[in-house]
Amino acid sequence: MALRWNDTLKTSLAWQDAQHQEVFARVDELLEAMYSGSDVPKLDVLFDHVRASLVKHFATEEQFMLRMMCPGFVKHKEAHAAFLEQLPAVRNKLANATAKQIVEIQMFFATWLRQHILTLDRSAAAHVSQRESSAGRNTA
Ligand SMILES: [Fe+2]
Ligand SMILES: [Fe+2]
What we know:
Elements: H1 14-35, H2 40-67, H3 73-91, H4 99-135
One fe (ii) ion binds next to helix 3 and helix 4.
């Protein structure tokens, strides 16, 4: 068990929580494979799954925020882009990673995801929930 989403990371949007859980599950799969000494081709595939889950989630979140005219949209979108830009450097560390390096990769994902969800994601969700509660809509 390397990286788990939990209730402390909930926002007020169910679809957003579900996508965050998906991202955590993909990162967890990668970390588990690294801890168990999987070969590089397998790690590359799992890394692609992590990246794909992030790209999909960020795009969904950005479209949603734009539609809901969330304040802070540009800053939030830039934070997503900056995180994706760091991924190639992580990919370069997959091969022959030591236990210490695997922990560092775990911390890289855990720290960013947690901090991002609890600040920018949660504030965007709160804005949308307030808006939606009067409009009676709450979907991605
Ligand atoms: Fe976000
Ligand atoms: Fe998010």
